[in-house]
Structure formats: structure tokens, C-alpha cells
Amino acid sequence: MTRYLLRRIVETLAVLLLLSACVYAVFYVLPGDPARLICGKICLPDQLTAIHQKLGLDQPLWEQYLHFLQGLVAGRDYSSGPSVNHCPAPCLGYSFQTDQPVTGLLLDRLPVSLSLTLGAAVLWLVIGVGTGLVSGLRPGSLADRALTAVALAGTATPVFVLGLVLLLVFCVYLAWLPFPGYVPLTEDPVAWAQNLLLPWLTLALTTAVVYSRLTRTTLLEILAEDHIRTLRAYGVPERRIIGRHALRGTLTPIITLFGLHVGTVLGSTVLTESLFGLPGLGKLLIDAVNTIDVPVVVGATLLSGFAIVVGNTLADLLYHFADPRVHLT
Amino acid sequence: MRHYRVGLAIVAALVLIALTAPLLTALEGQDATGFHPELVNSALGGLPNGALGGISADHWLGVEPGTGRDIFARIVYGAQVSLGVAIGATVVQVLIGTTVGLAAGMGGRLADGLLTRGIDLMMALPELIFAIALLVIVPAGFPRPLLLAGVIGVFGWGGTARLVRAQTLSLRTRDYVAAARLAGAGRVRVARREILPGVVAPVLTYAALLLPGNIVSEAGLSFLGIGVRPPTPSWGQMLSNASVWFRSDPMYVIIPAAAIFLAVLAFTLLGDGVRKAANPRTTGAAS
Amino acid sequence: MRTSHKVLTALVPLAALLAACGHNTQDAQGAKNSTAAFDPATCQGGTLRVLNQGDLTHYDPARLYTSGGGKIPTLLFRTLTTRNRVPGPDSTKVVPDLATDVGTPSDDAKTWTYHLKDGLKFEDGTPITSADIKYGIERSFAPELPGGAPYLRDWLKDAQNYGGPYKDGELSSIETPDDKTIIFKLRKPEGEFPYLATATQFAPVPKAKDTGVDYEKHPISSGPYKVESFDQSKHLVLVRNDNWSRQIDDQRLACPDRIEVTAGLDPAVVNQRLATGAGDDANAATTDVNLGPAELARLGSDPQLAAHVAHTHFGDTTYLAFNPKVKPFDDIKVREAISYAVNRQTVINAVGGSQLADPATTFLPDQAVFGYQPYDHFPAGPTGDPAKAKELLAQAGYPNGLTITLTHSTAQSGHGPGVATAIQDALKQAGITVNLEPLDPDSFDAKVNTPATEPGLSIDGWGADWPSGNPFLAPIFDGRQIIKSGGNFNLAQYDNPEVNDEIDAINKLTDPAAAAKRWGALDEKIGKEALTVPLYHSKDLLLFGKNVKNAWVSDWNGLYDLSVMSVK
Amino acid sequence: MTLSVKGLTVRYPGVTAVDDLSFDLPDGGSLAVVGESGSGKSTTAAALLGLHRGTRAQVTGTVELDGVDLTTLPDERLRAVRGRRIAMVFQDPLSALDPFFTVGDQIASVYRLHTRAARRASRQKAVEVLNRVGIPDAARRVRAHPHEFSGGMRQRALIAMALALEPSVLVADEPTSALDVTVQAQILTLLADLRAQSGMALLFVTHDLAVAAQIADDVLVMRHGRAVERGPVRRVLTAPAEPYTRELVDAVPRLHTPRAAPEPAAPRNAAVTVHGVSHHYRRGAHALKGISLEVREGETLGIVGESGSGKSTLARIMAGLLPPTHGRVAFDGGPRMRQMVFQDPASSFNPRRQIGASVAEPLLTARSGPAGDAVSDAVGDALERVGLGPEYTARYPHELSGGQRQRAAIARALIARPKLMICDEAVSALDVTTQAGILRLLTDVQRELGLAMVFVSHDLAVVRQVSDRVAVMKDGELVELADAETLFEAPQHPYTRLLLSTAPALDGDRPDSH
């Protein structure tokens, strides 16, 4: 187990290193000079040079990358003239557009994205697995057919379409819910949940479809397996077979998928956050892309890559704990 | 199977609409880029005159707020972009995925190891984020639909590659491959005659399932404002523009939303049909 | 200042929809008139909240680019002069702030002398001296503190290569013979120097407290408020500065005891909160969130809400810029044809309709202070005159039409794709095929503002740093302001000695009224050359909370003024 | 009369799997149900416990257990009978146990369910029955998950589960078919012992007549869902009344019947020589350890061993499909001169190519081979030689039966005119009657063409039918290599003796039955 974790950590680091190098190389060719943007509309050459120096843009690419890595481990100072901007480790860079360390910016936005994803995750698990079980236990029934149809419609409804529809229904016509903003959990838990309900539903319903289908097929497959037949041959009641044995096996792939899904936090929330104007990581990224705030883009991309790699490891671990046959190697 | 037929019918209709867009708009007597200031109320921010977003005999689906452009024409031309980009992206995904997967599956241990890691890395990339970033990097003058298809394709071939690799590895151990080797067939001949035919069917099935996802990707990127450039119409872009008009002009939202929904639904049904036809064993009881 | 609408957010969020949400909770008691029941004597107290979209970035007076003192900066930084805080056209006047008058010109307006008022103090109680003002200006030359307007470097003598006090010591062209007097030596006549002196660079900075780049974390206030906390980029809390009083400041009322600025909010959320006005939001205002086109329909049907809308009118012009160095725009007939062909109605609809923009036929904005003189050299009506355009094209040798390229920014707001497609459609009627060249905002700036790469036709916008003809016309048409290295705004690359001389002559005038008249005449004259096609002047609508009083709009910066508003 | 089946019929949509079957199983009796694939024997076993309920199968007739008809019993009451009165053991011991629960849990919970015993007592019972079925260290193993057990142990655990409730009838559906012969022998012995001790009746379903002979008193032969013949084992096997039974019995290879054809005269040259070949896979497990042997021209070398013995790996190395990690293989012949016939008829042909194209492949790849009509003629000839008409050229693999596909595979091997032909479990997946035909074909062509042949199998009796010399392998090592007669009649190595003694055979009391 320890050996596995160590190996996984090393692998994760290797992947992240590679990822960061790719990201760095890609964004180096961005149009526009970030220094120019910082400098303002009318910029004099020596001002530009000073900013170049400060950002380290006058160094060759590989050297900039090394500095980036160094900052990640040990922190880094951006200095010129009489003052120094310190960016403490782990320093993902310094956003000169907003004049803040990228790490801080990301951490600022993280609670929003986490609130969104985790809340939605609970919903999509409950809805997805619940409907999947209903479908899988009575294949071909009216409920199963109805759910299949709903799931199909769900697959065909992108988040931005669903979000708009939900807003129109709940916010405009029924006026049951407040327009979504973001209230920190620590400030007012009720308002937090109320405000996030629509974004949660939007994200959850589109994802729940996947879980529902997976639960249904897995359940059907497991119910057709030999060990279920053994239980039946030994007079074990159907309720117990499903509740104790089939469910256990059904949840295993669900848990694994869940680990993978949670890792894709950032990627999956860009659209939802943009749609609802939630100030999360996805919104930060879109804004950063539009203002060519490269350090933020690099940082956010790395963070989401990191989340995915961690999610993969998490999925493996969960799988290991859920299924005694799986050995971590 | 009858769902599959419904899907096929809608897909066929959409393709026909996309192909005959100029004809259809000519039939309506409008075009996709013409402004009609007389059809909107400038004092109300450009709200279309008349009920239901200005639907009339001349403008079958109403007009855009602000510009007064014909929505029907923009929807049918938008179909070209939506389907074109999605199909193009799928082709890119299948080509790259099959090549990489086949190379990994047929290659030696080293090649396989490297390529597999590459595929894993590819799958670990936050696709949407990279697509967003790349769309910003490429100069604005580059033909946008091509770029979109390329970007969606380039970040979405991991699944295909994995599938092809797994299939190749599985086929490689089949006795008939051993028999072919004993019969004197070289690696290339084995790959071409024995492996590839076995890979094509699952890949095509998979591609059919990739397509609706690619439609959503294109719409999503356009929705984020980094898709095709105006005045080229695209459904996602229309929806994005429409989203602020939700209350005052709901038809403007409903029409592109319905178009996206219908297209994704149809391609999903078709993909499901293809999958079930190719692999009847997994047919669900409810279908 | 160009009006590039620095809102680059690609996705226009659901402003209309969100604004619609919660509409039912709107206070039905009826809105109070914003100016009624306002008495400066009893207005003190309460907390004014400012809900903003853009992040708060640099609160360093050297780095701010403001006009008339700025919206929030003016609460902290007093400057030599400032904008006049009265409703109506007089709000475009310059009035003294720290100084006793708007400045005494001498030597053909090449020397400007100011005397400080008595009793001026920083927030820590130390007196404000002319040396503090001089130091504040010098700091703005430091390369590590970029961001301010470029005029100082251009106007002050010996300042062209000055590198700021950290590197190059003092700047010789600013003299402080005593603690109360400060004298500026310019290298050319600048009649509008008093306007420039409203910029935050003219705010005093105590050298002893200067912490360089970190100064913005706690700038030393000379205004009615001081920083209580500045949570980087998101929250700024201002509280009363006890060393400030109305006795030493006749411009600011400073009614609220406390002003809390929250930044980084979604625009739709801001508008919704202001419209609903629940709880503290009734005491809120915004300085950067306008109402969008889709929200306008609602105003017509909701008079209570309409009472909380400020209609602003900031002078700017969006126009088509020709580069006559590129064929076929070297031919005035072609430029005229395009002037006739444009359909201003579709352009205005594309940017939000008649409530958000007025058609423009003059380059100067339609406000008297700029020297506006109405003219329409190529009368095409609201929807254009394609027949006339075709005729001109035929004369120019293009009887079968013409294909041209229009370069535009991809930024969704302002002169972005919406305007470009409207132009494309209008010119099509006149037989001109327009290919669009969309560029992301930075590439657009880089390409268009560098003479060597400038395209033949682009969509641009221009706004003035202060309400006067000079900053509106000179950067665009003064031949000596063609900047080869980039950052050039004279897009026609127009260098006419006659025009240059006239600009110099007007700059010598120190009477704004006299100057305005001649700027107007100059605009009318240049307009005949069809170097630009003025498209529209924009207007903005802003909401404010229902408890907010005295929220009249200044013509100077097109905004209600936080320093005179009250929540009591 | 414990179990009485009358007119049992099981219909699936479109197929009648069991057709009007009747038989009795007395208290403490044992009945083997024997048949080839598709005979309906497993369906019968499942139908006894009412396992078709809730599926699309239609069951008619009666299954009376102590006078109670199980087919009409309400679900609730049937559940009480299942496991308690009539229990079942399945073929694949890996999938028959829930992978998520420990073996002990599964036994204990079934026990508790029927006896309402306390948790602790149930646990105790699980240990006890595991002990009884011979699981060493049962008190500890009770906490193991199924995947931690070997195949044989899993089957024991499943039997233990049945045993815990002391049912009066145990239905065993091919319980040893997935096991090696030595393990199979242990399980068969265990079942026989348990039956003797507890007096429960045993219904044993198998495809293997030899196993049936070993375990049961009576045998019921089924074909196409119908009973063909029923009687005491010895009588049915020695004096079958029905032609089908006779055919079946005759097709079973005998362990002690030597190869029909005479030994080739005179020593010949080695066709292939294996010099100290070792092989190990990536994870380091040794599949082969220092094997040396040779196959001479015109002879057949049989290779026998249990699963994991390395026999298939050796076959692939000899064919040149797999490079050995150490050692070398000397083969006196060019490319395409070594051919193989594989075990799985389903995977030995490319499903997307016509049989003719696959058979022609060796000719098509040869640089100087025949072309055009010559190829199709050759393919036709080859197919004809293996007993398939030329019309099979244009057929696809899925249109052929398993036996036909093996014939086509032999044709593909022969068309290249090989010097060496390797058959890797070439008849293991086939029914016994089909198997006999293929074996005949193989010996015929080998003799006719004077091929060197390697015949790999786990089935000693089959190997005996075709081999001149036989190699015995165990855990990657060559245990014994001798000519067939010597090896089968006077084995030297203890392992060879063990194999021979555990292999079920129809020879009766050897060797004097013939």
C-alpha cells in the first residue's frame, strides 16, 4: 500500500511536470505581450523593458520554466526597482493583471467550484443511482421506459441548455428560487444552498444520466451473474440478494467513476459557472483567457490537471477498497 | 430499433437541411446576414416587433433582437457549422485515435509503453480548458470551423486510441493472428488483413457515439464566445447571444436550444442504434 | 483615452434573465425621487455600498488613469484641480481642489503656477506641501509604476527621458519655491493644463511614507476617506478621514460614514441586487455596471425601477477609421461613398438601440463642452444612401462595386463583431463586399495602432480624458502625434500643417469657451476630408439603490458622484 | 423415493431445451446425467431447483421432492426448500461465489437463513463444514475471499455450503469440468465420501462418461433434450442398448488402448530439436525451465500436463511464434513449414474473412507461390482432404460448426506442405463424437504425409490415441519422456503415475478390460 502510494505520487509528479511543460510551451506562443497589457494603453519602451524584466520575460523559455518550477517548490520574488512582490511557495506564478499570486487567486475561487461540484456530486449520485436502481430492478417496466426516455433527453441536453431552461422555469415563471449568486457557506449556509440549488441541479442532472445508465446496466449484469444464481439456489430471498449482494457489486464501478468525475471539477464547471456568473475557477479561467492573463491560465490548467490525476488515484484507491479482488500494483 | 430509425430520420433531415441551406433560405426569401432595422424596436434595446420574437410569414422563426436578422436562415446555416464541425472533429478523433491505438497495440513494448502513457496524459488533460486556451492562441484569421473541428478532435482522440489499442491487443492474441504469422504474413500484412478489419467496426460504432458529444462541444465553445466568428451563424453562438434575451424574447432562446437538443438527441439515438446493431448482446431490455 | 470597453468577458451573462429573477420581490411602495429630500447639512451617516464588476487593482495615485479625479480615487486623493460637482453642463468645468484657483498661466500658457489652500493635511495629520505634490508627479515617471496618462511626459519640460525619483532624482521642470507654491514648466503651450491637474498624479504623496510598489496597499489619504482595509482586488473599505473637513474642501460632501466597495461581481448580479434593493443593497450603487439592451424592455414597463436609473452621457465616438495610405481609401470618393453607405440605424441596434447610442455625424461628441457643432457632410439619413454611394464609387472608377477588408476587435462589447457585421450588411447594399478581419483585442491594438501594419479600414472608438476638444481631436488629427513605434491613434496618419497650426493656436487659449468654439470649427473642417465615418455616440444607463440620494450624473465622466451621494 | 421427475419440459422462445424428461432418484442414490453440448443436461439440473422462475423459460411437468411438487410451490416455500432440502454445486467455482464477501460469510449467512442459528454458531458451522470438505486451516481460511482460493478449494467451499444444510439431494452441474484431473479426482472422491457419510442423493451432470462411471450408480444419457437411455452405469457403458449411447461410448478415447497404426520403422532425423529452452513472462513467473527434446520426422510427440504446466508455451516456442528467453529451437525447414492447429475453434479463423481466404493465406504470402486458379484449386483440394467440400471456400467461420472449423484449420495447416504440425489442445473444446473424427483425421494425414507432429493436451487418453512418444510436463519442467507404451503402462515418475491414476477412464479395471 505504501509502496503503491509512493509510486503513484512519483507518477503523478511526472505527469504534472510533463503537463506543466506542455502548458508552458503552448502559452508561450500566445498573441500579445502580457507586459504590454500591464503597461497600459500608452507604454514607453523602458517601462516595457522594466516589466519584461520583472516578469522574467527577457529570459529564454527554458529558463523561465525552471524559474517557474523553482517558484513552485520554494516560492519566488518578482522584483524590479525598489520593491519586491513575493510569491510564496507553492507559487504558480504571479498575475500582474490583478497583481496577486496565482495560487492565492485559485484558492480564492476554489470554495465556489468545490461548493458547486460537491453539492452537485451528492445530487447526481442520489438521483443517478436511485433512478438506475429503479430502472435496473424492473427492466422493461413503465418506470424503466420513462427513465430511459428521460435519460436520453438528458444526454441530449447540454448544461448550458438545461441551465437556461431551469432558470426560466424556477426563477422566472415559478419564482421559487433566488437568482443564483454566491454566498460563502461560512457566511450563511441557507443562502449558500439556496443560491447554488439551480447550478447544482444543472450540473447534477446532466451527470446523473451517466450514473443512472451505468447503475442500470451494472445491476442487470450482476443479476445475471453466477453467484446470484448460487444465492437463489440456496433460497436467499430476492430482497436480500439485491440489497446485500447485487448492490455491493453495482456500487463498485459507480464509486470508481465518481473518483474520476470529481477529478474533472474545473473542466466541468466552466460552462455552469459562466452561465450562472458564479465566481469559481472556471469563470476565473475564462476571464483569464480573455485578458490573456497567462500565469492564471497556466495555474488553472495545472490545477485541473492535478485534480484529474488525483481523481484517478482516488478512483484506484476506492476501487481497491470496494473490490477485494483488486490489488494495487 | 425503432428509436434508431427516428434518429436516422432526424439526422438525415438535418444533413439535408445543412446541405440545402441556400435553397431553403431562398425559399423563405431571406438570408442569414441581412439586417432588418425596421423589424426591431430600437428604443427597447432592439426587441423584435410583434409576437413570438417577430414570427411572420416572411420570417418563419422570427428575427434576432438588435439586428433583425432572420432566425430561420441562421438556424439552417448554423446546421452547416454544427454538423460540419462535429463530423470533422469526429474524423480527426478517429484518424488520430486509430493510428495511435494501432501503433501502440502492434508496436513493441517500448512503443506501447510510450504511446499508452501519451494516451493517458491526453485523457488527463482538461479538454475543454485546453480547447478554450488553444482557440485563443490561434490567430483570429484562421478559418474558424476548421480550427474548431481540429481542436475538438485533437483533444478528444484518447478514447478512440484506448479502444483501438485494447482491441488490437485482444485481436493479436487470437489464434487466427498466430495462424497468419505461421502462414508467413509480416507485421504490416497482419495489421492490415487481420487486425484492422476487426478494429473498424468497433471504431465506427464508437465514432457514432462520439458525434453527439462533439456537437455539444462545438455548441459549448461557441456558447463561451470562442466558437465561429460572426457573421457566420452557429447554434451555440445564437444561444449565447440569446441568453440575455430570455425574458423579453424567449423564442430567441428556445429555437437554437431546440436545434441543439434535437441534433444531439438524433445522433445519440443513431449511435445507440449502431452500437446495438454491432453488439446485440448488450441490448437493454427496455429498448 | 480610447473607449475600448475593457470588459473582455466573452460571455455576456444572463443579465436580463437574472434581473428578471426575484422581480416579484420588488418594493411596491414606490421609489423615492433620488434628489428629493436631500439636504447636505443632514446627509451624513450610514454606509454606502459600491457593487462593481471590475477588480480593484492599483490604488496608487501614480498608476491610476482617471478623468476629473476618478470615481473611487477622488474619495482618497485630492488633486490640484478637480471636476465641478454640480448637476448640469457646469459639471464639465474645472474647479480648484487643493489649489486656490485652476492655475495661473504665463509665458503663452507654457508656465502654470498654483498656490495651495491653507490647512490641508494628510490622514496622519501632517500638512500637505507643494513638495508632496511634486513628489507624487515624479513617482508617476517610475517605470515600475506604470499606468497613468501619458500627457505629463509629453508636456513637461525635460521629462521625456526622466525615469522617476528612485533612479533620476528630482524633475527640474517642477519648481516649489515654497511650501504653498508649485510651478510647472511646459515645453509647449497647453491651455488645458488645469484639466490635466485633475489627474491623481497631481495628488500629494509624502515621500517618507512611499513604499514603492507597495504604496497602493495603504495609500496616504488627502481626501474625506481613508483606507480601513483593502482586501486585494475584492473589498475596499473606506472610513472617514478625521483630518479632512468640509471647511478645507468645498467640492466633496462625504455624506456616508463608511463606503464599502465590493468588486469582481457578476454584472447581472449587480443589476439584480440594485434593482431588488433588498437590505443593504438599498444603499448601494455601482461605478462600472451598465444596463444591457435586453434589460431595457423592462424599464419601460416598470416606472419605479426607472426612477433609480441614471442616464449618463460620457462623450465618446465610435467610428470607421480609414488609412488613406492603403488603396482604395486613398481616394476620397471611396471614403465618401462609404460615408454615404453606412446604416447608422443597424449599427446602433447592434449595440443596444436608441437608448444606448445616438447616431453620430460629427467626430466630436454632441456636448457643447467639447465644442460640438452639428454638421453632416455626407447626409445619408439614419439608414444610409446606397444609391449615392454607388454613384460615388462609379466616379471613383468602381462601377461594379468593390471588395474591401474591415478589421475589427473580437471583443463582444463596443466596436466588436456586432458593429462589424452591421457595416458589412450596409455596405453590401452599395455594392461593396466587406471581408471581416476579426482580431483579438490585443492583436487588434498592436496592428491598428502601429502605422506600418495599420489596415485600410477598422472600427475604433475614442473618448476624451477630460471634457474638452483638445484631448478629443489632437491625438486623432495632429500630424505630430503620429507615433511610428506603436500606440498611434492618428489612424488617418493625417499631417496637415494648417490643422497642426490651428491646434497649437487653440492650445494657447486659456478661455475654455473660446477654445471650444474653435475646436468645433476645426472638427467641421476636418470632417470634409472623410477621414473617418462617425457612427455613434454611446450612452449608458446605471441603476442605484432606492435609498441612495443626490445621485445626479456628472457630464464630465458620465456617472453619479460617490463623493456627494447620500444613503441617509 | 426422494426425487421424482415426470414429463419435465423446458422451452425457451423458439427452442425446447428439455423435452418430456422423466426419471427418479432414490434416497441416497446417485445418478449421472450425461450428454454432449446442447443435450439439455444443465437445463435439467437448474429446472430441478426451479431456477428458471422469472426468466423467459417455460417449465412444465412435475419435479417432486418427497412428494411435494417443486414446480408449483409458491416462491416463499420454494426458497425454504432450496439449499435446505435440495442444494446445487455449479461448474465454474470462481463465478459461483460472491467476490465481495468472505467464503465463511457466505456459508454462514446461508446457514443462518435456513436454521435461524445464532451468528456465532453459524460461523462455527462454516468452519466445521470447510474442515469437513478438506480445506486446510479452515478456521483461518473462513475469512478469505473467494479469489484467494484455488479452483479446487472454491469448489470444496461450494460443496461445504451445500453440506452445511445437510440437504437430501445434491445437484452437481459439471462440478469438475473446469478443474485439472488431479483436482477433479479429489473432488470426486470428496463427493463420494460425503454421500457415503450423509446418505444424501447425488445428481451429477457431466459431459464426461468416464467421470460418470466413477461417481454414479446409474446413468441417464441425454440427447437433444430427451432421455436416450437410462440404467446402471456399468451396464450402459459396457452394453449400451441404444445406438447413440454406443456411438458415444465408442468415441471416448481409452487410456490403455494403444495407437491404432503401427509404429514407424527405423529411427529418422529430428525435425525439430529443443535445446535447453526456458521461458519466463514479464512478471518473472517461469513458464518453462530448461526443456530439451526432439521431434523426429514422421512421428507424433504427445505433450501432456495440467494447466500451468507450460505445455502451450512450449508448443508456441516450437512453432516459432514465441522466442524463448533462453535456449534455442533448431528446425530443419523454411518459413511456413511449421503449422499449428489451435484449441479454440471460435478464434482460429478471422471472422471477417472467408474460410477459403484464410486457408489460402500461406500460399498468398509465399513469394514464389502459386497464383490465381492454382490457389483456388489448392484450397479446394485441401478442404476436400479434410472432409469439407469446396463449397466451404466461400463460407464465413460463423457458418461452420466447431468440428468443421477444426477441419478447415487442418486444411490451412496442410496447404503449406509443412514438415511439422503442432496441435495445441486441438480437440479439447469439441464434443466427444466430433473429437473422435478429428483425431482420426489427424492420425491419417500425419501417416499419409509423414509429418512430424506435436500433440499437446491435458487429456491423457486423447494423447494416447495419437502419440508415438509422450512427454509429461509439470510446472514448466519436463517430468518424463518416453514412448507411449512405456509411459502409459510402466510410468517411472510419481507424477506420471499420479496423472494416470487420477485420469478418469472408461477402460474399466485396467488393464485387463480388453
Automatic annotation (TrEMBL), chain A:
Membrane topology term: Multi-pass membrane protein
Domain ABC transmembrane type-1, chain residue ranges per copy: 110-319
Subcellular location(s) of the protein: Cell membrane
Keyword Transport attributed: yes
PANTHER family: DIPEPTIDE TRANSPORT SYSTEM PERMEASE PROTEIN DPPB-RELATED (PTHR43163:SF6)
Gene Ontology BP, a term: transmembrane transport
Chief place of localization: membrane
Protein name: ABC transporter permease
UniProt KW Membrane keyword: yes
Native species: Planotetraspora thailandica
InterPro entries registered for this protein in UniProt: BPD_transp_1_N, MetI-like, MetI-like_sf
Family to which this protein belongs: Belongs to the binding-protein-dependent transport system permease family.
Keywords annotated in UniProt: Cell membrane, Membrane, Transmembrane, Transmembrane helix, Transport
Gene3D superfamilies per UniProt: MetI-like
Gene Ontology CC terms, in alphabetical order: plasma membrane
Pfam families in the record: BPD_transp_1 (PF00528), BPD_transp_1_N (PF19300)
Membrane-traversing stretches: 12-30, 112-134, 146-176, 196-214, 254-276, 296-319
Automatic annotation (TrEMBL), chain B:
UniProtKB keywords: Cell membrane, Membrane, Transmembrane, Transmembrane helix, Transport
SUPFAM superfamilies in UniProt: MetI-like
Highest taxon listed in the record's lineage: Bacteria
Keyword Transport: yes
Major localization listed first in the record, in broad terms: membrane
Transmembrane segments: 83-107, 119-140, 146-164, 195-215, 251-271
A GO CC annotation given for this chain: plasma membrane
Compartments in which it is found: Cell membrane
Similarity remark: Belongs to the binding-protein-dependent transport system permease family.
The name this protein goes by in its record: Peptide ABC transporter permease
Organism of origin: Planotetraspora thailandica
UniProtKB/TrEMBL annotation, chain C:
Signal sequence, renumbered to the chain: 1-25
SUPFAM superfamilies documented for this protein: Periplasmic binding protein-like II
Gene Ontology cellular-component annotations: ATP-binding cassette (ABC) transporter complex; periplasmic space
Solute-binding protein family domain span: 93-480
GO BP term, pick one: peptide transport
GO terms, molecular function: peptide transmembrane transporter activity
Pfam families xrefs: SBP_bac_5 (PF00496)
InterPro entries documented for this protein: Peptide/Ni-bd, SBP_5, SBP_5_dom
Keywords: Signal
Protein name listed in UniProt: ABC transporter substrate-binding protein
UniProtKB/TrEMBL annotation, chain D:
Keyword Nucleus in record: no
Cited SMART domains: AAA (SM00382)
One record GO biological process: peptide transport
InterPro entries given in the database record: AAA+_ATPase, ABC_transp_ATP-bind, ABC_transporter-like_ATP-bd, ABC_transporter-like_CS, Oligopep_ABC_C, P-loop_NTPase
MF terms (GO), sorted A to Z: ATP binding; ATP hydrolysis activity
Record domain ABC transporter: where: 3-249, 272-500
CDD domains the UniProt entry points to: ABC_NikE_OppD_transporters
Swiss-Prot/TrEMBL keywords: ATP-binding, Nucleotide-binding, Transport
A Pfam family matched in the record: ABC_tran
The family this protein is said to belong to: Belongs to the ABC transporter superfamily.
Protein name: ABC transporter ATP-binding protein
